[in-house]
Amino acid sequence: MKIGNILSITGLSFVMLFSLLVLAADSINFSAILGGAANQSFTLFQFIGPIAGGFLGAAAGALSVLLAEVVSFFWLGKEVNLVNLLRLAPMLFAAIYFAKYARGKFAGALVSLACMAAFIAHPVGQQAWVYSLYWLIPAIALVLPEHLFLRSLGSTFTAHSIGSVIWLYAFPSTAVFWLALIPVVAVERLLFASGISISYVAMNALFSRVEAIAKSGFVFVDQRYALVPAKVN
Question: pLDDT tens digits for 3-61?
Fold first, then answer.
């Protein structure tokens, strides 16, 4: 979706729709964050957030995610500080990666590669450098044959790279802590990638119905996962 289209009534409606969807998903806990602060959990936001980029494009998708995150931020009464503001970034870039993946934009992997360098540059990260190898996955996914699960995997590891680096620089930790997380991250991100893939297929099916009626042209429907096939003129 182009910036000009976002500012139209229809464009803003779709952005708000996704924002509400993402906000609702953010209120449903999925699993506790290992090593995180008390009462912090991953939510279904991890499944829904990235796909906004697939339907709305990079700019509008990131905007819808940001709107939902800002509302959630103040609704939950989070303290306004640098760390909490930076933690808005992971899902924004996950949505951008998801949007750019279909176009084969290798630039989508630059974020995770930059995070890899930042992790290794940290004294603790240097001792646990193998942990950061996970962030090669977004780049590898871009050079392999296109596949929805790889797209989802690259997206969730993009978010993971940013979140991990923020945590590394903001809070004290040890190399043992990061190395112990390696098997946990493998299971966690495979689940997230599966959830993203399933959510994308389900939303494609829904929006294929909506677009067949509304014919708005503002939402990209992947016909491979559509209930209503495209008409051939």
Answer: 544 545 555 666 677 677 766 766 666 655 554 444 555 677 788 888 888 887 888 77
CB 22 within 8 A of CB 49: yes
* Nearest alpha-carbon partner for 109 in 126, 129, 134: 134
Q: Are 137 and 161 in contact (CB under 8 A)?
A: no
For the chain, give every domain's residue range. Answer: 3-225
pTM (predicted TM-score): 0.82
Contact 65, 22 (CB under 8 A): yes
| Nearest-5° Cα angle at 16, 216 to 142 | 75
* Cα separation values, 221 from 84, 87, 134, 136, 227, Å: 34, 30, 30, 29, 10
**Alpha carbon distances (Å) from 100 to 13, 70, 188:** 22, 23, 23
